Amino acid sequence: MDKNLVYSLIVPVAFTIFTLVYLKLARKHAVYDDPSGRSSHSDSTITGFGLFVIFGLLLYNIVFPYTMKSFFIIGLLMLGTVSYMDDLFFIKHFVRLIFQIFALTLLAIELPFGFVDLEKIPLIITVVILGIGVLNAFNFMDGINGMLGLNSLVILLSFLYLNNFGIDSNGDALNFVSNAFLYTIIIGLLFFMFLNLRQKAVVFAGDTGSIALAFVIFYLMMSLIFKTGNLTYLLLFVVMGIDAGLTVIFKLLLRENIFVPHRDFLFKKLVHVGKFKHVNIALTYAGIQALVSIVVIALPLQKRIPVQMSILFLVTVTLCAAYINTRNKYTKKRVIKFSDYAELEDEEIPPTQP
Q1: Whether 85 contacts 50, CB under 8 Å
Q2: Could you tell me the residue ranges of all domains in the chain?
Q3: What would the pLDDT profile of 141-165 be if each residue is shown by its tens digit?
Q4: How far apart (Å, rounded) are the C-alpha atoms in residues 59 and 201?
Q5: What three-state secondary structure class fits 33?
Q6: β-pairing, 45-46 with 342-348?
Q7: Any idea what the Cα angle at residue 279 is, between residues 250 and 32, rounded to 5°?
Q8: Beta strand segments in the chain, E
Q9: Measured between alpha carbons, how far is 160 from 166 in angstroms, rounded to an integer?
Q10: DSSP H or E segment with residue 269
Q11: pTM: predicted TM-score of the whole model, two decimal places
């Protein structure tokens, strides 16, 4: 019998066992995320289920050994371990940042730069900085039921389609990652979504899942871009990127601590101020991302950098305008004057009725 067929049957069974065992152990050892003043949930919920990513990685490498980059595996295992420890007990932001930088450096080394010399160091630093942004953007997504699962599923399905049907600049099939690995992570994600994509979630992925998924997705994204030379594929996770990026910029302008838990992300404002249901917001974000991804995939492969940058600029500016317009409906702005400058603050209020 074909090995891939057998593996495709084993994976759902393995994740079923993982799910049952994890739920039992989590309840026994009280691995819960208790709500705080800035939480988007009101009940204690099992957390750390994001270990499914690490479980999937180990399962894949047992069946298909030596098919993945060693430094990528080490980086993912390291981040998964540190993140799970953070789910169990608080780890300082600086310590987590150090591990993220180290893991992303390992990831960057595995990218097809060719021979790594001094000229490549600025490019590696750029990848690490971009990776830190992606990891922390995903880290905030687990606060809304279904947000992490649905958006990650859209991205991974986009990768799966491109991996099988996309072509590079030479007209060759992309095949930038193993289909079996993508299948493994997607099946694990579906099990997570079954328990999380509901008004009252049974589990949260925790930092374990959000950081691990972000690491996997970022590695696949970078591999895809290096394979094709097409920067427009960055748009495959542009929706959450804009929400996270503009929110961080906004808080920095207000000189606020971006590491302190808050409700300033647009999707959280829509839940807490707009009173929209978690699942509806998650579906909306994933739907917009799916539309953008379909357009990006349908576009002919652009070889010229100016054309790629023009597409990136047009889509990003359009979504930024939509973000700002929607945010303004749920935010009252006021100016606090100081001796030498004026600083903008915001307060959450329900939108005014026309």
Answers
A1: no
A2: 3-348
A3: 777 899 999 999 999 999 999 999 9
A4: 26
A5: strand
A6: unpaired
A7: 85
A8: 32-33, 45-46, 331-337, 342-348
A9: 9
A10: helix 266-272
A11: 0.89
